[in-house]
Amino acid sequence: MKENGIVSKIISDRLAEVAFQRSAACEKCRACRIAGEGMVAITAVNELGAKQNDIVEIEVPTETMVVSSLVVFLLPVFFLIVGYLLGLAVGEKFALPFAFLALVASFFIIVWFDRNIAQKERLGARIVRIISGR
Q1: Region of 59 on the Ramachandran plot (φ > 0 left; ψ -120 to 50 alpha; else beta)
Q2: pTM (2 decimals)?
């Protein structure tokens, strides 16, 4: 996915926050955070040295969107089923508590994944072109 946006904040030498108009693709992805008034923002790798208020083109690899979707939607279901089956193996009355605990554990894994995905530069968003400086 490619989008044009404005560098709203320089986070570090290698990272910048880019804000852009929320599009139809944003409804499905949800990789960005809401920045208000129809805008969304994402942290992107800034290898090109874009400055604050520069208009840039960012790219989020398809691989990132697929992996994120799998983690967010399938992991809880998988953990719920595995927890239920483990609970049944221990005893029938343990099936639902084990399923619930496994579901909660999956949410911790999702939070960890969300916090660490930005650090994996090959999976994260990156600035691919500076359109204009301000």
Answers
A1: beta
A2: 0.62
Q: Which CATH architecture has domain 2-61+117-132?
A: Beta Barrel (2.40)
First-last CA distance in the chain: 25
Reduced to 3 states (helix: H, G, I; strand: E, B; else coil), residue 10 is strand
Q: Where are the domains of the chain?
A: 2-61+117-132, 64-115
Determine the residue type at 113. F
Contact 95, 84 (CB under 8 A): yes
Banded pLDDT at 74 (limits 50, 70, 90): very high
* Nearest-angstrom CA–CA distance, 27 and 25: 5
Cβ atoms 87, 97 nearer than 8 A:
yes
Q: Can you tell me whether residue 91 is helix, strand or coil?
A: coil
Residues with Cβ within 8 Å of residue 67, at least 6 apart in sequence: 123
Condensed to tens digits (0 to 9), the pLDDT of residues 10-37 reads: 988 888 999 988 776 666 555 666 666 7
- In one-letter notation, the amino acid at residue 109 is I
